Amino acid sequence: xxxxxxxxxxxxxxxxxxxxxxxxxxxxxxxxxxxxxxxxxxxxxxxxxxxxxxxxxxxxxxxxxxxxxxx
Length: 71
Hints:
- By secondary structure, the protein is mostly helical.
- The chain is built from 3 helices and no strands.
- It has a domain at 1-41.
- The N and C termini lie far apart (56 Å).
């Protein structure tokens, strides 16, 4: 799809220098890909109650290098 857009030159130049991308077209393409990817990721808050830890899970024991007891 071809379209014309007005971009903030300072923002574009900063994005070009940070990304190492050479063209505005490639920069806009990459930005759109990252935007879509970011929006598709699950929000961790949506996972509340969708599983959980075992009742005998002991993170302190794991940090100390101790074996966790099986279920």
